[in-house]
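User: Batch of two.

Assistant: Item 1 of 2:
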Amino acid sequence: MRRVFVIVLGAYVLAALGNKVAERMGALQCGCAEECWCRRPSLSLFRWVFPWRHRTAHTFGGKAQLVHSAS
């Protein structure tokens, strides 16, 4: 059981590192607000493998305006 846990944890961290490299290369871009947890240096590694509870940079009205302007 311990071996499975170590393998899963290693794969998770490896995926996080790969996504961090892709972000540095410009393939991924985070649109969160500055106060989001994923903007902290120590937690930004897990931004793309733990994408829940992000704070968006736009308010609800701002998102609606962006959608209408794109049409």
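Item 2 of 2:
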Amino acid sequence: MPDDPGGDRIPSLPSRGRGGMTILPNRSAAWDCRDVLSEVAPLPPTTILRDTPDSVSVLLVEDEPGDAHLIMHVLHEFTRPRFLVHHAESLAAAIAMVDGGAAIDVVLLDLSLPDSFGIGTYVRMQAAAPKLPIVIMTGTDDPAFAASAVEAGAQDYLVKSADPSATVGRVIRYAITRMNAQIERQALLERLADQQRRFVHEISIARAMQFHLLPRPERLEARLIRMGVEIEAFFEPSSGIGGDLWGCMDGGDNRLTFFTFDLSGHGIGAALNVFRLHTLLGEHWTPDHSPAETLTLLGGILHDLLDRGQFATMFLGILDCQRQELEWAAAGAPPPLLIEGGRMCFLDTQGVPLGLQKTPSYTNHRIAFPPGSSLFLYSDAITDAQIGCTGESFGEERLAAMAEAVVQNAGRMAVDHLLDRFYESLDGAVEDDLTALCITQLAL
């Protein structure tokens, strides 16, 4: 069965030695749930007036008796809606009414009061009643001042020198309507933010689960040391989770079975199919099956499980350290690079991707794999990456040349060195799930 990871963290081994496994740390920028969240300041709940009510409760904050009497007289003339007026002569009295639970629908606020003056009056009133629409009353017909008040959050303003009978009712109704729209918009933003948070939380869980599918170093290290095998790997889905995976199984008798696969698509759908295929491997793989037999079995099952147009490319190999031989079969996977001394060649990976045919057929291949040999497997995120603005792909030739340069400089095939060079050659980010895996039979 594929190695059962267990545990609660992404596996890592900090050092290299003779044998063992090294899982390189993720090269991409830290994937942080907060990157996809918008900061939405929560507002206190309130009742939303969706239709024109039969009555509107108005808090009139005005210390001039004449102005207050005129406004109240005008409002009392309306019959639909009826305006019920509460009068306060100071800001403190108005805030006390609100804090005391008075049913208020809108505030008419004079900015020049005995205990407060200017925009500060509005700021204090708004802080006391953040969900109430506030209409500012000013004795100065100053558009700049009015604009600054509205910019600060007021719904509208009235100029006391104007005829209130022509404007006050309309301004109040419009202020309530605008505040309702603002409240509904805020509620929508909060619902969307909450959905985002839940989505990101679920993606985080799924990402951790996908990383837990990877082989655990502590479970394989002792066996790899005995076999004289080293595995160096890099794994990073492009959108938190994705369709790539690699793994290995104990084949017994100095045999190690390993695989890489790539499900079509990206994101959640591809990740779900990764879990499907990993489970199928655990249920149907046995050391007695050849790679071709295993792929044939998996291809038939996936044909019935995957939706139309979905498929998986896969490489499945068996390293026999006693016979110093590599056996493999492939289902359209990117061709791995075999490195032996100064010689490099790509392996044959022709074969129909899994899931496209009910009864696919695959071919077993064998090649010598003496001590000192390395096999570099990778996802097509590397070869399909775009170089510059011409749209040219990175391609297999560049990959081989880069691997050769790494071997010459480092004396071995090193995944971290190759990926350093690869990322330096790109103008932008990699937009696909990236897996890179190097299996080396250490020299005696």
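Confidence is low (pLDDT under 50) at residues 4-52.
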